Amino acid sequence: MLTSLWQGRSKVSKECKVEQYIKNEIRKRKAICFGLIDPEGLSEQEAVKMAVEAEDSGVAAILVGGSTAMDQLELNNVVKIIKKAITKPVILFPSNVTGVVPSADAILFSSLLNSDNTYFITEAQALGALLVRKYKLEAIPMAYLIVGEGGAAGFIGKARGIPASKPQIAAMYALAAQYLGMRFLYLEAGSGVISHVSSQIVKVVRKVYEGVLIVGGGITGPEIATELVRSGAEVLVVGTLLELNGGRKLLGKIVSAAEAAAKGL
Ligand code: 1GP
Question: What pTM value is reported for the model?
Answer without folding.
Answer: 0.94
